[in-house]
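Task: sequence design from structure.
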């Protein structure tokens, strides 16, 4: 097969961010180190990609289990141990293709990880096109896993209708900000939970939430009660722990909970259990709690993307990004995300060659 390539000739070396040691408790930038390695040439069926954007996700902390050889319950995702290169979703450009599906210059969504260049299997890549008025990173945000996940929670799992009052936790995050707006576009009353007055103000004034409450505030429970005078019929849950417990306390009879994520426990470690005071309300009020996972619902992704793209184009969904510049600063980006810095989709811009 004829190999297609751009101006990038000869040996390619790449910087790679490694997890130097698995954290026990809060993650710091000291848990990472950079290495530089020479990449092999792509074999048949492989392509060499240049990373443009990296996705930064809370689940990266969850998989730092120091058990690289066992699945950790994340639907086939394996843990990251000391010395492993950081994995993750990327948008890149094909530099060299050894597969007929891709040509040099194509933009692709892949799992390139935290590195400047990656050799990826063509079968694992999806071609993506620039979207008018949006950066290429939109394919890691509202038109990527966060957007699809939000749709799966609000539309497929909770089946939100105009009569619902919907509570969204981590509402200023990548998934939560889209989930709340999807619920709003169905006519529901939407209340967000976020950390800090500034994020709460943004949810109401920019994203059009009906109310937002600050879970870090001393009067959080009172704020939540005042924001949900008629109770809550749907929760899109991203956090768990005390935040979910508070939401459970506001649920109306026959309410539905779409359990999307439990990021409250990601820093503490898998197995650290929170003692729910309101667990019994699942029984007493006939609530339905449904966990869902994006990788098990691939048959619905296309339908989700059609609505998400239409909503972005019509302006019924607006999004924001927190962008960190430079691969060397990726650890700061993840540590900052876990500490609640920034809002919307968190990304690292590795290469700005294709900026609009
Ligand atoms: N089910 C699925 O298939 C699926 C797929 C993708 C993602 N997820 C899950 O969806 C959830 C949201 O993911 P995302 O990528 O959009 O992340 P995200 O919500 O953007 O996560 C970052 C935000 O989480 C909040 N946060 C961090 N620690 C917290 C804590 N202890 N308590 C409350 N809030 C905390 C912070 O916001 P504040 O400033 O508001 O604290 C931070 O800005 C995660 O649980 C993730 O694992 C599930």
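Answer:
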């Amino acid at each position: 097969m004829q190999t297609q390539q751009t101006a990038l000739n000869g040996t390619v070396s790449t910087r790679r961010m490694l997890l130097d040691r698995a954290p026990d408790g809060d993650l710091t930038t000291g848990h990472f180190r950079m290495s530089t390695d020479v990449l092999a040439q792509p074999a048949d069926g492989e392509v060499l990609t240049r990373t443009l954007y990296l996705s930064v996700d809370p689940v990266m902390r969850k998989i730092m289990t120091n058990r690289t050889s066992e699945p950790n319950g994340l639907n086939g995702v394996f843990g990251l141990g000391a010395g492993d290169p950081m994995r993750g979703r990327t948008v890149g450009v094909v530099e060299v293709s050894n597969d007929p599906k891709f040509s040099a210059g194509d933009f692709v969504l892949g799992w390139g990880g935290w590195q400047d260049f990656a050799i990826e299997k063509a079968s694992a890549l999806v071609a993506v096109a620039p979207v008018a008025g949006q950066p290429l990173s939109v394919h890691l945000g509202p038109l990527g896993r966060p957007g699809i996940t939000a749709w799966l929670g609000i539309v497929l799992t909770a089946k939100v209708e105009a009569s619902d009052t919907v509570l969204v936790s981590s509402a200023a995050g990548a998934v939560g900000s889209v989930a709340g707006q999807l619920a709003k576009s169905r006519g529901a009353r939407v209340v967000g939970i976020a950390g800090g007055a500034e994020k709460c103000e943004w949810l109401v004034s920019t994203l059009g939430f009906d109310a937002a409450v600050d879970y870090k505030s001393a009067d959080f429970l009172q704020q939540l009660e005042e924001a949900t005078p008629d109770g809550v019929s749907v929760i899109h849950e991203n956090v768990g722990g005390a935040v979910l417990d508070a939401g459970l306390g506001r649920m109306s009879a026959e309410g539905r909970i779409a359990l999307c994520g439990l990021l409250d426990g990601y820093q503490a470690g898998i197995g650290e259990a929170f003692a729910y005071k309101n667990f019994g309300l699942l029984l007493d009020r006939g609530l339905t709690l449904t966990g869902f996972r994006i990788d098990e619902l691939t048959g619905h992704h296309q339908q989700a993307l059609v609505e998400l793209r239409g909503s972005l184009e019509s302006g019924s969904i607006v999004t924001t990004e927190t962008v960190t510049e430079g691969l060397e600063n990726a650890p700061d980006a993840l540590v900052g995300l876990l500490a609640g810095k920034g809002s919307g989709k968190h990304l690292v811009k590795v290469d700005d060659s294709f900026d609009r």
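The pocket of NAP is lined by residues 57-59, 145-146, 149, 170, 172-176, 194-196, 199, 238-239, 243, 260-261, 263-264, 292-294, 337-338, 340 (CB under 6 Å).
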